[in-house]
Amino acid sequence: MSEPGKLFGIQKAAEADIDDFRQDLGPFVVAAETTRMPMVFTNAKVAGKPIVFVNQAFLTLTGFEEDEVLGRSFLSLIEHDSDPEALAEIQTAFEGGRDLQTQIRCCKKGGSVLWVLIFINPVRDKNGDLLQHFASFLNIDRDRELEDHLRLVLEESHYRAQQSLKALTALAIGALRGAVAQNVVDEFERSARMIISEIAKNRPDTDGSQTRNAQTSAEISHAPRGYVSREDV
User: Fold this and answer.
1) Contact of 133 with 94, CB cutoff 8 Å
2) pLDDT tens digit sequence for 106-146
3) Nearest C-alpha neighbor of 13 from the set 48, 55, 37
4) What are the φ/ψ torsions at residue 100 (nearest 5 degrees)?
5) How far is residue 142's CA from residue 163's CA, in Å, rounded to a whole number?
6) Parallel, antiparallel, or unpaired: how do β-strands 113-124 and 51-54 relate?
7) Which residues pair with 103 in a beta bridge?
8) Cα 72 to the chain's mean position, in Å?
9) Helix 209-222 vs helix 182-202: angle between axes, to the nearest 10 degrees?
10) Is pTM, for the whole model, over 0.70?
């Protein structure tokens, strides 16, 4: 069969699934069509869990047309480079017919992606047999952007605090040396190194900067006695 013929057959099968879906769920479909929450239903009885229904809110969110998603596997909506653990959770939820809530990157038309919080629930008949999976989407793309920005701000704050403490420690050691007993200087230096080490340990390492921070206490302990660098003042 030619490629256009195959696509036509898939579309016809998807339309038949939608008719069955509407008959099975009746009034619920009307509610799903009008809600502003993006929603997708899949056929749980077919391998690949093909999509049998999407509402307008989902089409608006992703930019797809209805005929571009009907009949496709649900996982085709998910970015291939998404968290493998989240993908495995979705597959397990489908196979086990259980509820799931997770964050994932959803594909949009044109190749872009957005972060969504996805809720998956099984739909069963009166005998308890699994018919469909119902998935709703919450757009959290803006939240993730703000989260990433906040993380960068916090990382920079951690680094600046550590650098300030490093400079103050070096100045204090230089001032104490010769003014108090050496054991007092040594104890002060040891305590300062411990504090700086704790700051470095608790700082998120999203850009490799934790390695840079871990060197700070070593720089102090290996610096010449009384040495204060130009960077530190």
Assistant:
1) yes
2) 999 999 999 999 999 998 888 888 988 999 999 988 766 66
3) 48
4) -155, 145
5) 32
6) unpaired
7) 117
8) 24
9) 180
10) no
